[in-house]
Structures are given as structure tokens and as C-alpha cells.
Amino acid sequence: MQNSGSQTPRIRHRKRSSEGFQEASKANGSHLLVHDQNKYRSMLIRTYSTVWMIGGFALVIYMGHLYIAAMIVVIQIFMAKELFNLLRRSHEDRQLPGFRMLNWHFFFTAMLFVYGRILSQQLVNTVTTDMVLYKLVSKLVKYHMIACYALYIAGFVWFIVTLKKKMYKYQFSQYAWTHMILIVVFTQSAFTVANIFEGIFWFLLPATLIVINDIAAYIFGFFFGRTPLIKLSPKKTWEGFIGASFTTMISAFLLASIMGRFQWLTCPRKDLSTGWLQCDPDPFFRPEYYTLPRWFSQLFPWKEVAIMPVQWHALCLGLFASIIAPFGGFFASGFKRAFKIKDFGDSIPGHGGITDRMDCQMVMAVFAYIYHQSFVVAMNLSVETILGQV
């Protein structure tokens, strides 16, 4: 009787602490994966979708630069669709026939402008052998900007003409929302496509590091997660964040060495053809040999080690992917909470929508391009530039 009586307060205390934890979890909107009763089922679905995504992604990478750019376009369309639907109201849309088409008009106008600016030189280089086609493409490139501006002005006039009494607030909010989506989506895409044609390496490595960081954070949080990281993403834990950071840094160093050996990944593409690439390796992809300390060579059979200079740059990319890029996911989580939705869509089982998978990628793509242009690309001075300085 004494034992049962002494155990009763402990049992009550455990129940109260458990109930308090559940209440705190509900207040945050969710609970840690380690306490999720359905975590194994959700992990199975998530793993199945991940395998299919990685397999499809690898196939597109093998097909080459042009197909990767096409994949980016498809991803953009899905992202725009999910974001357009976020503030869409069917009741108002029924009173504004054709208004939804206006959003897509601005979308494809922005797409024509962005990709025309990025790929104009590659397009010209592709048609240099045909003089008639070359002249036609040159004219299109020359008048590309005015054509895009005319399309935008046509959309602007279309919007003004279709303004309807008592619907002004909804229409102007949709107009502003559309332009915000274009800025978010096409800023990311512009840098991503630019990275692709600088060499698939500069697109593939940053994108892979984000995937590795996401998977590692999920696994470490799944098995060891105890300490919540941020209220915006209640299932994120410090254990997952730290474990994923170390995994991402190690992966960046090793993957850079592996990817840097393939010319298909390191050579820049100067046109829009799909043929095999061959080029002289950039100095960043030529291994440099470092002599190991004497004590190390006494313990192990290696006397020197070969490291590519790009591997040191990969560590910077890995550091950004593990520490800063996750804040893109936190931003998306806060955004979803503001609109009281769980996911942006349901395109990918276990993952949500395309936008849910691209939140960190958008941040990473911009950084990868800026880092590449700032610290990797050599400064090319033309004769005109030098004479101008003189």
C-alpha cells in the first residue's frame, strides 16, 4: 500500500508533464518527430517520394544543360500555380471572367524577358552556321526588350480595362500578389539557369547540398530530436540542425572532388546544343598535392593527398547550405502559418507542393551564383576596357 501510495504522485506528475508537453506542442502547431505516433508511416511515404525525385533528377542531369533548364521552367510553372491559388477566391473569380488569365500573361511575359536576357548569347551561338537564321535571331535579340515591354504594357492596360466596381480591392491585391510571385520565382530561376550554363557543377552541387541537408536534418531529428529549434517549424530540432550541418560540410568536400572529375559537369555550355562537352579543365578542377605530416605517414600508408581548389570553395557552399539556407524554409513556414495552411500544395506525397521543396533552393541558387561570380570567375578585361582606363 505504501509503494502504491508513493507512486501515485509520480504517475500524476508524469501525466501532467505529458499533458503540458502536448499542450505546448499544440500551441506551436505541431510536435517533434520523436513523439509522432505516425512517424514511421510518414517516413516511408517521404522516402518513396524522395527516391523517385532523386532518380528523375539524376536522369535530367544526365540529359544535359538544355533539359535541366526545361526542368526549371516546369518547376516554375508549378510554383506559380501553387502561389496563384493561395490568395484565389472562387467567388470573386466567377465575377471576373478572364481575370485569372491575366496572371499567366504576366508570368509568361516575365519568363520571356528573363530567359531571353540570360540565353540570348547561347541562342546566337547556336545559329551561327545559318546566315538567314542568324540574322533573324539577331533581330529578335535586339528588339527583345521592347517586345517584352509591349507585352507587359498590354497586360497593364488589360488590367485597367477589366477593373470592376466593388471588386477593386480584390483586383489590386491580386495584381500586387502576382508581381510579388514573379519577383520571388524569377529571381531564383534567373540565377539557377545562369549557374547551369556556367557548368552543371555550379547548379548540381548547391542543389545536392540542400537535399543532403534536408534529409540529414530529418534523419537526425527523427532519431535524436529533443530540443525544438524554432517555433515557426516545431518539428525542427537543434539535434537535427547540428547533425545536418556536419553531414553537409563533409558531403560538400567529398562531392566536389567526385563531380570535379567529370567534364560533362564542369565545362560551361556556350550554346543551346545537347552534344557532349569537352574542354580544358579549369584550374579550380585540377588537383593540387599536399604533403602529409611525417607522423601521419608513419601511421597510414599515404604520404600526400590530392585536393582540388574547388573543394575549398565547396566548404563555403556547404556552410551556407547548412546554416543560412534553412532560413528559407523557416520563412516559408512562417508564410504558411500566416495563411493557415499546412503545405503550398500536394504535388509530392509526403513533401507537400513544389514550393515546399524549393524554399531553401531559392536562397541557395542566388548565393551560389553570387559566390561563383565573386570568387571563382576570373576578371576578363577587354581591349576597350583597358584603353578606357588608360
From TrEMBL:
Gene Ontology MF annotations: phosphatidate cytidylyltransferase activity
Superkingdom to which the source organism belongs: Eukaryota
Enzyme class label: transferase
Family annotation (Pfam families): CTP_transf_1 (PF01148)
Record's cofactor remark: Requires a divalent cation for activity.
Entry keyword annotation includes ATP-binding: no
Main location: membrane
Record keywords: Lipid biosynthesis, Lipid metabolism, Membrane, Nucleotidyltransferase, Phospholipid biosynthesis, Phospholipid metabolism, Transferase, Transmembrane, Transmembrane helix
Subcellular location: Membrane
GO cellular component terms, A-Z: membrane
Single GO biological process annotation from the record: CDP-diacylglycerol biosynthetic process
Pathway recorded for this protein: Lipid metabolism; Phospholipid metabolism; CDP-diacylglycerol biosynthesis; CDP-diacylglycerol from sn-glycerol 3-phosphate: step 3/3
Catalytic reaction equation(s): a 1,2-diacyl-sn-glycero-3-phosphate + CTP + H(+) = a CDP-1,2-diacyl-sn-glycerol + diphosphate
Membrane topology field: Multi-pass membrane protein
Cofactor(s) required, per the database record: Mg(2+)
Disordered: annotated segments: 1-24
Segments crossing the lipid bilayer: 51-80, 101-120, 140-163, 175-194, 200-225, 237-259, 310-332
Enzyme nomenclature, EC number: 2.7.7.41
Family designation: Belongs to the CDS family.
Record function comment: May be involved in the synthesis of minor phospholipids and in modulation of IP3-mediated signal transduction.
Protein known as: Phosphatidate cytidylyltransferase
Organism: Eucalyptus grandis (Flooded gum)
Species lineage: Eukaryota, Viridiplantae, Streptophyta, Embryophyta, Tracheophyta
